[in-house]
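1st attempt posting a full record on here, be nice pls
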Amino acid sequence: MKFDEEYTKYWTSAVDKSIDGTKIASLNEVNYFLKDLNISDDNSILDLGCSYGRMSDVLSNYSNKIYGAEPDDYAVGEARNMKYADVKKGSAEKIPYDDNFFDLVFCWAVMDVVDHLQTFKEMNRVLKDNGKIFITGKNINYHHDDILAFKAEKNAYLKNFPNKFTNLDLVKKNINTLGFELIKLFIFPKRGDFGNLKFIDSDISLNNKIIGYEYLLVASKIDKPSTLDNKDDYLSSPVSFTANSMALENGLDSVDDYFKSIGID
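the predicted structure (as tokens):
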């Protein structure tokens, strides 16, 4: 699927309520977590993957310097009518702003469709020292009994919808190598929990394995990334560990075979 006008209009119509009826986290949930970041009026905030400007209303309550970046021309045009100082065409993997420009990079529901390794590198580049990232996404290891999460993954896969799962254990392990210090990590155990603010304030030590469907991660820039020579995005996967293990449990060698054996529902 291309990030074009068709995608933007589809996404615009889907943000209020998901197909399976679960509540999608939106402006109220953003505000719930942003209010504790001590953002000042003169802080520069990047809404990375801003689409048509859905988050501009809540972000503008915190700062007078809100900027956007978005790959779709149509969405850029729509967002420029919202409360941004500027909106530029560009991707998360190649952010169209200068080095050390922002105090906060806000990346809401974008990690699902981007190269994680390159995105972390670019967020680091455009952030000032001690600037923060605020990102959400789906974890690669969710609970086996989360039927709604499994159906969402399967149906997205069979429809060739862009879908990436963050390997949170690897992100947490390599966060300093990526040039960040982890501040907060919230885990939303099952699909729909984010919209209902049902979460676990996760232990940010390296010892505990992370299991849960969605996450919100806050980290601070402490340095430039130290080793990012690997061109492969080892921090994410198009299929979850959960689906992989379920395929094996059902006697199939691949997630592709497993999903196709069930079909879309």
